[in-house]
Write a structure and sequence with these properties.
By secondary structure, this protein is α/β, with parallel strands linked by helices. It has 2 domains: 161 residues, Rossmann fold; 59 residues, no CATH class. Helix 2 crosses helix 3, helix 8 packs antiparallel against helix 9 and helix 9 crosses helix 10. It is elongated and about 60 Å long.
């Protein structure tokens, strides 16, 4: 469903409205903050549909460190699902064999595998073949072509060389599955056609700042860690500081506000000077 653009001053959160009243937030940035909040809401609705079974495979694109995995895992947990029971998150170091094992363990309907920036698996033909089998729209047969025996890490039993997969695969990646040439590119095209896409269009620095604003104010993600849990007034101080020093870091991500929050929490008088040096080195 296409959403209408909202005026920049409209926000469902009164705290957001109060913060944006400061003159440091220019109209164009206010508008982007509003639009990025809507983008996150669209991504949440997309994930809800995936969890409900509307899509049996999904790909979420977006720049690194901008909260793709947070959106996915929050949605899974909001539906009462538990990690390592109902879903598993495979990180960037995962291998095709690890993927095969977890596809087997999470093969039943209602189970989810999240590939968190596992571009190494996507770039390998073996990994792509496994994902193609697991995301096929009609016949989901996953096979292990190697002669190497694969065992269930829970009970040590040998995992069969092929099985039917009825779970759901969710891929978060920085790389779009674009059309190309060559064998691997053909596999990528096949995977792209099997998975429903969702894009966090946050390519510009102003958009990334808007995402940081959203995650701090709307999602309160800094409260997840005692070392970065700061007051609302301190959050405003942090947001203004980041905006004033937006060009210092090579790239923006959700790690940078955590760095600044720790400096603010230290209560040192010269926290701003120290934080600028950290941003320059980031």
């Amino acid at each position: 469903m296409k959403r209408e653009k909202l005026p920049a001053q409209i926000s469902a959160n009164p705290v957001v409205t109060s913060i944006l009243a400061d003159s440091i937030f220019k109209p164009s940035l206010k508008q982007r903050i509003t639009e990025v909040a809507m983008l996150n809401e669209d991504a949440k609705e997309f994930m809800d549909s995936v969890i409900k079974g509307v899509h049996r495979a999904a790909v979420i694109y977006g720049p690194p460190g901008m909260g793709k995995t947070h959106i996915v895992t929050n949605a899974l947990q909001a539906h009462g699902l538990s990690e390592a029971v109902d879903y598993v998150v495979l990180r960037s170091h995962a291998t095709p064999m690890m993927l095969y094992v977890w596809l087997y363990l999470m093969r039943k309907q209602g189970k989810f595998i999240v590939l968190d920036d596992c571009d190494g698996i996507i770039a390998q033909e073996t990994g792509l073949n496994l994902l193609k089998g697991a995301t096929d729209n009609t016949f989901r047969q996953v096979g292990w072509a190697s002669t190497q025996i694969v065992r269930n890490p829970i009970n040590g039993k040998v995992i069969p060389n092929s099985f039917e997969f009825n779970g759901t695969v969710i891929i978060t990646t920085n790389v779009r599955l674009t059309v190309g040439r060559g064998r691997t590119a053909n596999h990528m095209d096949a995977l792209r056609s099997r998975a429903a896409p969702c894009s966090l269009n946050l390519e510009h620095r102003e958009d990334q700042y808007a995402q940081i604003f959203h995650m701090i104010v709307e999602k309160n993600y800094l409260a997840n860690d005692p070392t970065t849990d700061i007051t609302v007034d301190e959050q405003v101080k942090l947001l203004k500081f980041l905006l004033e020093n937006l060009d210092l870091p090579r790239r923006l991500d959700l790690r940078l506000p955590q760095i600044v929050a720790r400096e603010i929490k230290s209560k040192k008088v010269n926290w701003e000077r120290r934080a600028r040096r950290l941003l320059e080195a980031a």
